[in-house]
Structures are given as C-alpha cells and as structure tokens.
Amino acid sequence: MPRRPLPRLAYLTSLYPAVSHTFIQREIAGLRALGFAVETCSVRRPDPTHLNGPEEREAEADSFYILDAARRPTILPRALLFTLARPSRALQTLALAWRTAPPGIRGGLKQLAYLAEAMILARHLVARNIDHLHNHFATASANVAMLASKISGIPFSYTLHGPSDLCEPDTWQLREKTARADFVACISHFARSQAMLFCAPDQWQKLRIVHCGVFPDLYAHPALASRTGMHLIFVGRLAPVKGLRVLFEAFRKSWAAHPDLRLTLVGDGEDRAHLEKLAKPFGDVVRFAGYMSQDQVAATLQSADAFVLPSFAEGLPVVLMEALASERPVIATQVAGVAELVEDGANGFLVPPGDAESLAGRISALADDPALRTRMGAAGRAKVEAEFDAHREAARIAALFVGEGGHNPRPEPLKSAREMS
C-alpha cells in the first residue's frame, strides 16, 4: 500500500544548538537522512560558547528564534491577530494557559510570556506548512509547544529526559502534556516508568522508548596503551550536580597509589573556579580543557584510557555513549537510567552516587588492569552499536511521526521512509 508523504516537522527547544544537547542535532540529522523536512526552532539564540564547531554554526544559522522575532515591532501584533482570527481556539488556548500555569504570581507571568511565544511560533509553523511539532524536554519550551499546538491545530509530541523534567511533574503539568501529545518519546525505561507514575493509565500507550544516540562511526577507537596508570577524562558541565568534588576526593585517594594517573575535565560552568582551587594540589596532573567541539571531544576520548561521570542526577547521558563508542571503559554513578547503558563489570563500573571510596576503588581497578580496560571497551562499543546508534533511533521516532512503529514500548524503526509511492 502506498505510504502517504512524510510530514513536515518542526523541532523546538529552549536553546538550540546547545553544547550539551548535541544528541538533538544527531536526531534531526538522522531524520533528514530518512527524507524528512525538519525545521529547527528555539526560544532563545545561543551565545558563542555553544557554537564550537561547523555543525553548531550551521544549525544556528538555519533556525527560527522566537525571542529574536519578538523584538521586531510588527511580529507580536501580527501573531495576536493570527490567534484572534481563530476565536474558538484562542479562547481554548487562553483557558489551557490559565489552567497549566506554573504556581504563583511569578509562574503566571511566565505563562503569559510562554503564551506570547506560542502565538509567534504558531504563526510561523502555519506559514511554513508544518505538519507536526516535536519538543525536546518537558519544561518551559514544552509549555510553548503545547500552547502553539492548540492555537494552530498542529499536533505535537515531546521527548521526556530527566532529571529536570521529572523533578517537578506537577509544576510542568506532565499529565496534561502527555494527554494532549500524540506521543511521548522517553529516553529510557526509567524515564518511561516515572512518566507512568504521573500520567493516567489510559495514556501509557503513548509513552514510547526512543534513545538519544551517537553515530558510532564518528568515534575512532584506537587500541589502549598497555601500561599501568591511566588518563581519565570527564566531559560535562562543571556544576555541583555532576559530583566533581566527590571525583576529586576519589582521585586523590587513587593518585596516592598510582602517581601516573591523569585527569582531564572538558567543559565549563559555575563550579569551575572552586574546582580549580581544589585541583591546585594536583599540579598539572589535573587539566581543565574548557568547552570543546564534537570533533575535539572525540579526539580527546581517543587520548584517554577511561571515562568517569560521578553525577548525582542524570537522564541517560550521551557522553557515556560517546566514550563507549570510542571503546573506552566508563565509571558512572548508578542513577536514573544509567544502568540501562553501563553494565557493571561488563563495559564499565557502576558506583553509588556520592561514594568517594567506591569511586576510588574502581579508578584503581582500571588503572591496575590494562587488559580489563580493553575488554570493557570492546563490550561498550558493541552495546552502543546495538542499542544507541543515532541513525536507528531516528528511524524509531520517525515511525512514530508517520503513525507506525508497532505497539511495543520500543517502536520498530521506519525502514523505507523515502518510498512514497
């Protein structure tokens, strides 16, 4: 039976592109490779720190920015007229905005801003002949997406990540958003289970599991050096939630017995100044590399022997996938969906969050055993190729966009999106 033409998609986030959200760029690239037209939209334009590589600069140049548009004097009046031309939808949207506003006066004012942004976005989507709007994350930009969908009549869906999406499910109205969405792409079984807690059982069939992913072929995996000690790498925001103070305590314990250990931290953030003070006793053994482009991160992973992520809260970190795709063993905390990626003792180690002693023990175990690092690295690469390939995951969410994918929580990939007749 001939398949109907592919829907024209719009993707929305609060900030695009963002240095920590490269998985969204990969998902969009995978959809475009399948033949989908994808427009990228963002509430805010990123500052230059997010534009580290050519992919990011190209994405920024091609995106529609709501707040940029709002600064033009005629845009908001035109968006208001566009909305009022649909009086029934306008009243229903206003009621929805009132009912789903975050609590308090401040929350109400924010919701008014989201409503204005939604009117601008809705007008843009209709002008661009968009058939479906998809939003990443369930927080502020999902409010905009839900309201824009109501104004325009264009269906929407969203990807549920965590932990921020799940910390305040009532504030962010997960039940309402799920009820109104065509589907919800949950990044892990854990995320789906949490959504099931907050949504009515008759909505559970909408909760589908689509992993964030990487393109494994972009990550070279040269053989690890056969030596004691090792070069350990962290990639992420330098923020308290990442548990880096615990990492420094664990590193100090391991370094006492393994003086040839090295640690590189890739990224930046509000905790950097304090962390640099803590790192002074280590001298040049601990290096702060700052933000890097995707290619630079991949190259740095090639120079490392192992990867560490000591976070207190995560969703299902893409940076772990990048390390495993590079055949590097990982040490990560057992939080949220991490255990769905890191198999303790097989492709890395899982440790309790906040436990410096356990973390130090696992660092030392990898430092002492180059053969173990090699075995774990190979197992990690196989795991990513099997379950976290961004092309295959794009095909899974593509199936949902065209109303296919079967009935299991994990949708079947769309196989021949280009065959339209």
Keywords:
Rossmann fold, alpha/beta, disordered C terminus, 7-stranded parallel beta sheet, 6-stranded parallel beta sheet, 45% helix, globular, 2 domains, 13 strands
Layout of SSEs?
Layout: E1 9-15, H1 22-33, E2 38-44, H2 54-62, E3 64-65, H3 66-70, H4 75-84, H5 87-99, H6 104-127, E4 132-136, H7 140-152, E5 156-160, H8 164-167, H9 174-180, E6 184-186, H10 189-198, E7 207-209, E8 231-235, H11 244-257, E9 262-266, H12 272-279, E10 286-290, H13 294-303, E11 306-309, H14 318-325, E12 330-333, E13 348-351, H15 356-368, H16 370-387, H17 390-401
Parallel strand pairs: 1-2, 1-4, 2-3, 4-5, 5-6, 6-7, 8-9, 8-11, 9-10, 11-12, 12-13
Q: In brief, what are we looking at here?
A:
The protein has two domains: 9-213 and 390-401, Glycogen Phosphorylase B (Rossmann fold), CATH 3.40.50.2000; 216-387, 3-Layer(aba) Sandwich (Rossmann fold). It is 45% helix and 14% strand. It has helices spanning 22-33, 54-62, 66-70, 75-84, 87-99, 104-127, 140-152, 164-167, 174-180, 189-198, 244-257, 272-279, 294-303, 318-325, 356-368, 370-387, 390-401, and strands at 9-15, 38-44, 64-65, 132-136, 156-160, 184-186, 207-209, 231-235, 262-266, 286-290, 306-309, 330-333, 348-351.
